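TASK: fixed-backbone design
INPUT:
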């Protein structure tokens, strides 16, 4: 069975300093920015997915070791492996994967790490459970936990279960972080693609106090006339 050192060596063989420098800027790793202190090897996501496929049989312990790595790409590979494993697992194994994820949630600490993993693992887990813990995450002081809560509802949207998305978006309307505004607007838009009247009912009640970014994302698939009406406050 592959060891953590095998994966780390494979990643370092693909590392590119120029890509790493771009990633540090793109993921806002400067002082006071949302990704402050994150460290990059410089590997693009398609190549990370290839590495994850090559090492798909790594043990949970190796996954956990990668998740606590200071290197962004090592954490990403672990999450890609866990998502693939979760989607193929039975209920007991899904429970174990979910708990491994939650025990290391503080390392799921940038928007791409959240978005690649939360819908499948956290959302997928709560499809068959009481989803109240997702509402608790939406009230977390930690930005990434709030984004996990919101993006996890994509699993429900795909099943046509939209209520949780609207309830969590309502909790997050007053959030101060742009990355939360984008996530909430994104999930509202996806819900609206399934049931536009339900989205419009939500918007009519909340659009005047929604952050502008959240509103713009949410109304993206509405008609030009409806988008202008919301943006101009004519609803």
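OUTPUT:
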């Amino acid at each position: 069975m592959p060891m953590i050192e095998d994966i780390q060596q494979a990643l370092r063989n693909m590392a590119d300093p120029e890509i790493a420098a771009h990633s540090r800027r793109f993921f806002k790793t400067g002082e006071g920015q949302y990704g402050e202190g994150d460290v990059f090897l410089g590997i693009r996501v398609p190549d990370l997915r290839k590495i994850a496929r090559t090492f798909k049989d790594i043990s949970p312990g190796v996954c956990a070791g990668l998740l606590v790595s200071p290197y962004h790409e090592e954490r990403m590979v672990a999450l890609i492996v866990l998502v693939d494993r979760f989607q193929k697992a039975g209920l007991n194994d899904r429970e174990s994967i979910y708990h491994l994820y939650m025990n290391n949630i503080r390392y799921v600490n940038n928007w791409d790490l959240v978005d690649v993993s939360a819908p499948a693992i956290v959302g997928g887990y709560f499809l068959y459970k009481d989803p109240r813990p997702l509402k608790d995450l939406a009230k977390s002081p930690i930005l990434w936990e709030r984004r996990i809560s919101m993006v996890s509802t994509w699993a429900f949207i795909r099943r046509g279960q939209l209520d949780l998305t609207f309830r969590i978006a309502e909790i997050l309307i007053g959030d101060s972080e742009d990355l939360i505004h984008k996530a909430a607007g994104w999930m509202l838009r996806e819900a609206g693609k399934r049931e536009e009247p339900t989205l419009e009912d939500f918007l009519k009640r909340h659009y005047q106090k929604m952050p502008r970014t959240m509103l713009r994302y949410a109304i993206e698939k509405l008609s030009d006339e409806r988008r202008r009406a919301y943006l101009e406050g004519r609803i």
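COMMENT: The chain has a mean pLDDT of 97.
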